[in-house]
């Protein structure tokens, strides 16, 4: 049997030198961040950027029940990145897949450098990232929101890690790729930084770039991070005052 | 799984009940504040965010083409799945749904199905071969008691919000027209009303604290015509027949008010 | 390819006001209960009702190996309801499914009120219910048999929990629905009681009923429970004398 | 997994063996009482309940239409599955089959298959496309030693009891006629005979106690024509070649008697 | 859709009284054994026989983390037989299946009699057998290589267990069946012995044999074991000198 | 998971780095000895055994007929799977791939895919219906550091070694001709170069010891035309932008030498 799907959203095919959603090459999608949005979690945050909706809960520092994972001289930071079944066009089956396992790992590594883990030996800090709606760039959105949730939980930190991607689509290096730009584009470079020092805690490159394009993407992503960083601080100030 | 409630809190809550009071000043038949939004997830064909007090559930509905069950070739399918994700409470753990999660999904599913909420016969595209399957996913993100009622309320709202593409057979070809989105055919409305028993009293819409010290629980699913479409007892202690009959009768009253939270259409 | 199944058992379609198997509206199917039928288990029971064949084994009170489940001031009562692959028309794949997980949970809750759990802190009592053949009403049959197996194991109890369903089929409220009546019927209301006090420890309603029909079903189920309760006692007397 | 046998019991059992005796007064070549009923589960197309002493197994056979394996398009399929359910012994745990359970199912399966018990060629409905698959499920409900012999005996009896519907192709249509039930085509009979070695002696049909103190185990599957269709050594200690040859020869005698327990047809 | 596979290797159909690969009835396939081939493992060995390629690593005696398995008066010997996905014609899905679970169990039992387990109470010795390429007789190859790896790990042993199969194909009792002989043949009898005493630690029979044919197969397999035993010793001598 | 490196070893390694030295006398930009063989598994249509120092990986490639993904009907599929089998290191455990294993497979996969190593369009047999799927399995058998570079090197070599049968449609029939084996169409070559940061220095091809004391890791996938096809940062500590730019530039040099290890064709 043959299935034909009629869908007006496909095949837009605008080949102008502007981005499909009218953004400049170095412009972020509209975003908002809110801290302290859940009752039970020790800390929480909600973030929207473009069509992405991300909720993060933090529990801890708390007792680690899996003795095998325990670290004698520091806390373990465990992240779980998870997509809600209804967050994507085709329903996602519940439970971890290879993609979410990898993202959970690099998210932990992106956040760890900023947290004073050594203050809480033998314990765990658990970060649960739920993607309620996905529209390109969820791993960065998750990291940015997770920092705010960690702060909301009162976890002592060196800095607020912030994350944003740049990449290449239609031959141009652009900031903060939308889902469509990521899908049809040539490369995506997600980056996370600690804004005080500019040090990089997450870096991937998925796609094909020259060294120059890569460097340009990296710089652009760092600029994007800095803009988001302001919104993180505002979210925390709004919750706690300054 | 093991939640230890300090005796002093338990005692104080029980004393309040004795005096006809609750810790948040509610009456025995009073719900906490309810908030219900629909259309909250653009990528889901139907969605709702429901809050009862601090309890919060996101519900998404997604249609998918599938085959009907071989013993019911002329009806579509409604599948309910629930995830007590670890975000929602410190004792929820990652992994496949546990028994609480399974019970929540199955009771919600029975309530919607037995009430005849969705006109499943209208979901048939080609009898015995192609029907719409509606996947209803309950994503529990904050757990402060009474998941059952929130799950049914959110599911009802998400289904009322759902639009499915027009689908038809043209000869051997299945045509799915996403430019023509049709509201899911809703036949009936049903909600659920949960009581817990504390110190011999039945109180509605238990908070987390109240659930933790309850002796028993009863959840009653009811249609707008006051007929019963689901019931489930829970908890480690028994209920008397009189308590059950009383709960049914109080549900008849309460459901009328609860229905007002649903989108009016 | 088209598959045609010829089966004389389908489409009986008797629309008389009698039940298909000739029972009165308040009549149980034939049943028998036996205690002490297994060698290794601490307690056991076998029950047949209509076409249902149910075996129950009880182990405990015994040490609980899963520390996470341990209760400091009482025993845990764990029930596992399981269907043999050959117990139903279409072979059931081994292992738990969502239905059996739910039934296991409510079976535990149905039995717990009767057991003096507080006498055995930090331990477990394990109840294994095996459905060897299923013909409608297996959860009730499992609970009724489990009580006898608990008694056979010498577990101290307040009462012998007993369970039976009533419901509605062909527009009538009837007792103890057979598989056919459950499948084609309008509602099924499984109930368990502690017969000494009449208190209810299991209650579900699956289907569509008016309040009056529900109350009638509840009453009918309670009457059914009382009849089965006598058979439970006889099974125990037969095993141990009185 | 770890079963500690008090040294005193071990010693006393070993001493008995030394004197040519067993704790239940059996001879070395004597089985415990065997009871075998067939047709015990109405919903299964074939079934048997077998008891050897207190060991008890329910076996069910269910036919299902399926595709043949691509390298054997002209034979049906026999699948054996075994569950050491936690009912049967205090150390059996819920969950997927463990290594003992897998070994039991695979040895039983090999024994039936290599003996040619079922005429699998007669289970073909349409070559390369539709064959009968017979699922044999071993449900161990009481474990008091010697599961292997009980499993094979029960499987043999259940297969002999099995009736499958008449199935045929009518043009493109597969017709399954459940009104015409045909006995499963049985070509051969095979049983299994298990010995354990204790204190240098081989004794047949070990009880649980005997299994717990054995040094080695050998199970031999044999057809009614005394040919060997399966063999499996177990246990932490070795056997000599002479012991194995002796076990084969004793199996030849014992199997004749064991066969009498099967339905006579 | 119909799939036609053209393959020159099928349907050889030589019905001469010689074996397809020209071997005599009592001849082993070409083989080689090497000890000490891995860096991280405490002991290791590599074995080729015919088209089989088998790698074995031994870790231990070491602490056993699964308390439930711990033995107060001896070490546990755990074997894991595993096939690489690319080791067979049709890619094997990773992870254990029923066949590998059974082989792992009987491999443990085949090796245990030779190891002085009682010297290491409460600990574990782990033997990991990886089938890199499979061409008939992998379980025997794994056991033979495992003994060498155990010796390489310095585990004290009574003897070097060695394993080989005999069986029946084309009506003849033959030694060391190749994949083709195993597939088309009548029976396969894998055997493992401790060569010093001749005692048998592994014995299976898969297929149909008379008592006489079985006995002949058993004897033939034992002869094969003895030949392989020499190669085991040489491998160890080559690694450590004598 | 928890590997404790004695402080004394950590200190001595760090001191060496401070003096521009490494424990095995390598330079900061020097790889350990590399050995690469192809065609090592006869049953695999492509295979390679790669050693970097004592790290050893077996890679097998197996083609299989499958359906293309619905959104890319006109390209074949490359699937990469990795098993950190317990043979390879004392802390690797049996079971489904853990996060390290998943990361290794996914980074390798991205590197090959984004570089366009295999001409996937040539793997289509019938558009939208039948394509070749190439399964690349990484079997890690000895782990002494730097799995990433070894995995990509071995994968590249195994793909270059791979031959697939000629396949064509003849009317409705799919004909697979295993007598005509065709080399997998290779379009590009790509390798990976991994650095770790110790005491502020970036050193290439980390040994296990070096990995255990590193603060951060960066792996860069590069094509023979010096373009970047993959990048992955790892480790608990940050890198500066300058370090990353420097790593890219050093990779450009190193990759040229690394490429010489590949079969020359």
List the helices and strands and how they pair.
The complex is a heterohexamer, with three copies of chain A (242 residues) and three copies of chain B (265 residues).
Chain A: E1 2-6, E2 31-35, E3 43-49, E4 52-63, E5 76-83, H1 98-111, E6 123-133, H2 138-152, E7 162-169, E8 172-175, H3 179-184, E9 187-194, E10 199-209, H4 211-240
Parallel strand pairs in A: 5-6
Antiparallel strand pairs in A: 2-3, 3-4, 4-6, 7-8, 7-9, 9-10
Helix pairs in contact in A: 1-2, 2-4
Chain B: H1 7-18, E1 34-38, E2 46-52, E3 55-66, E4 77-83, H2 99-114, E5 124-126, E6 130-142, H3 147-161, E7 163-170, E8 173-183, E9 190-198, E10 201-204, H4 208-213, E11 216-223, E12 228-234, H5 241-259
Parallel strand pairs in B: 4-6
Antiparallel strand pairs in B: 1-2, 2-3, 3-6, 5-6, 7-8, 9-10, 9-11, 11-12
Helix pairs in contact in B: 2-3
What's this entry about, in short?
The complex is a heterohexamer, with 3 copies of chain A (242 residues) and 3 copies of chain B (265 residues). Chain A is 27% helix and 33% strand.
Structural descriptors:
heterohexamer, A: 242 residues, alpha+beta, four-stranded antiparallel sheet, 27% helix, globular, B: 265 residues, Ribosomal Protein S5, domain 2, 26% helix
Work out the strand percent of chain A.
Answer: 25-35%
Alpha carbon gyration radius of chain A: 18 Å
Oligomer: heterohexamer
Domain count of chain B: the total is 1
Low-confidence stretches of chain B: none
- Broad shape of chain A: globular
Helix content of chain B: 25-40%
- Please, what is the average pLDDT of chain B? 95
Top CATH class of chain B:
Alpha Beta
Continuous helix count of chain B = 5
Strand content of chain B: 35-45%
Biggest beta sheet attributes of chain A: 5 strands, mixed
Structural class of chain B: alpha+beta
Mean pLDDT of chain A: 94
Instruction: Give the largest chain-chain interface (CB within 8 Å).
Output: C-D, 40 and 39 residues
């Amino acid at each position: 049997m043959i299935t034909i799907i009629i869908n007006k959203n496909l095949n837009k095919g605008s080949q102008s030198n502007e981005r499909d959603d009218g953004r400049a090459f170095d412009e972020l999608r509209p975003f908002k961040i809110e801290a302290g949005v859940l009752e039970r979690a020790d800390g929480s945050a909600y973030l929207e950027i473009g069509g992405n909706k991300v909720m993060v809960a933090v529990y801890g520092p708390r007792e680690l029940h899996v003795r095998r994972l325990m670290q004698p001289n520091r806390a373990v930071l465990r992240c779980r990145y998870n997509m809600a079944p209804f967050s994507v066009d085709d329903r996602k089956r519940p439970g971890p897949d290879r993609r979410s396992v990898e993202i959970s790992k690099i998210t932990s590594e992106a956040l760890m450098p900023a947290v004073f883990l050594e203050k809480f030996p033998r314990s765990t800090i658990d970060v649960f990232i739920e993607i309620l709606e996905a529209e390109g760039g969820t791993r960065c959105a998750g990291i940015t929101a997770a920092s705010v949730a960690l702060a909301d939980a009162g976890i002592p930190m060196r800095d607020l890690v912030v994350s944003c991607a740049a990449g290449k689509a239609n031959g141009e290096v652009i900031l903060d790729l939308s889902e469509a730009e990521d899908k049809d584009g040539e490369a995506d470079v997600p980056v996370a930084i600690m804004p005080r020092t500019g040090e990089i805690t997450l870096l991937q490159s998925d796609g094909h770039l020259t060294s120059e394009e890569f460097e340009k993407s990296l710089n652009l992503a760092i600029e994007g991070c800095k803009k988001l960083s302001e919104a993180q601080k505002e979210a925390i100030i709004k919750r706690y005052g300054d | 799984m093991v939640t230890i409630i300090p005796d002093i809190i338990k005692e104080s809550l029980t004393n309040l009940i004795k005096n006809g009071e609750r810790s948040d000043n509610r009456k025995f038949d009073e719900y906490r504040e309810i908030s219900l939004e629909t259309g909250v997830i653009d990528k889901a064909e139907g969605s709702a965010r429901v809050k009862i007090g601090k309890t919060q559930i996101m519900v998404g509905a997604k249609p998918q083409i599938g085959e009907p069950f071989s013993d019911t070739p002329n009806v579509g399918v409604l599948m309910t799945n629930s995830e007590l994700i670890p975000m929602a409470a410190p004792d929820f753990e990652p992994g496949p749904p546990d028994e609480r999660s399974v019970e929540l999904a199955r009771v919600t599913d029975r309530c919607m199905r037995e009430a005849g909420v969705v006109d499943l016969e209208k979901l048939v595209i080609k009898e015995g071969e192609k029907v719409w399957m509606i996947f209803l996913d309950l994503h529990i993100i904050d757990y402060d008691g009474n998941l059952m009622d929130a799950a049914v309320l959110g599911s009802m709202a998400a289904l009322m919000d759902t639009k499915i593409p027009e689908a038809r057979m043209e000869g051997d070809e299945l045509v799915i027209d996403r430019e023509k989105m049709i509201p899911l055919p809703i036949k009936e409305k049903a909600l659920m009303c949960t009581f817990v028993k504390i110190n011999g009293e039945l109180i509605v819409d238990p908070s987390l604290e109240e659930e933790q010290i309850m002796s028993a629980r009863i959840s009653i699913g009811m249609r707008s015509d006051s007929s019963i479409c689901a019931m489930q007892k829970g908890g480690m202690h028994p209920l008397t027949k009189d308590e059950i009959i009383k709960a049914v009768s109080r549900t008849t009253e309460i459901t009328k008010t609860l229905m007002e939270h649903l989108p009016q259409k």
